[in-house]
Design brief:
Blueprint lengths: L1 E2 L5 E2 L51 H6 L4 E9 L6 E5 L1 E6 L6 E2 L12 E6 L4 E6 L6 E3 L2 E2 L4 E2 L5 E4 L2 E7 L9
Parallel strand pairs: 5-6
Antiparallel strand pairs: 1-2, 3-4, 3-13, 5-7, 7-8, 8-11, 9-10, 9-12, 12-13
Pfam family, one: Yop-YscD_cpl
InterPro entries: FHA_dom, SMAD_FHA_dom_sf, YscD_cytoplasmic_dom
Organism: Bacillus taeanensis
Length: about 180
Amino acid sequence: MERCSKGHYYEVSKHSSCPHCGINIDLNFERTMTKQQVDFPKTQAKVPSPPSQNDSNKTIGIVRKNLGIDPVVGWLICIEGAQKGRDFRIHSERNFIGRSDKMDIAITGDESISRENHAIVSYSPKKQNFRIYPGDSRGLVYLNDEEVINPEELQPYDVIELGQTKLIFIPFCGKKFQWK
């Protein structure tokens, strides 16, 4: 055992200096690794072909592809929250809801709504029905005051709650009307 200048005892075989007082670091880096010559094999990289000009890299929904337009199939109307009185258009297939401008349905002004994918509202042209899905965000989604855990079918005038925003669902397409 060794005693440091401040009176602490420590074991010299385990410590180069007193562990209670701190350590001494040698910042004198004079030793370096010796340089080695490495020969890399010569290979030719394949250059990827550019994507075809007519592929915009954006997926096009079936309805839009068949009709040439992406028509409105329903609406969400804000009845409570920062966007009160505003309507949001629902299109065929999946509509992602969040507060980011990248979302299909962008609800701004409510910081308690996740930026992206807080919820999803979908319309199935084949089954002619609407569904709501929970998103992959931290925030919860409520349908008529019940938490949405699994996909739920939407009915006219259902109330959807995201953060501090309440939306009422109004369908346009269904059994009585279908875009053709």
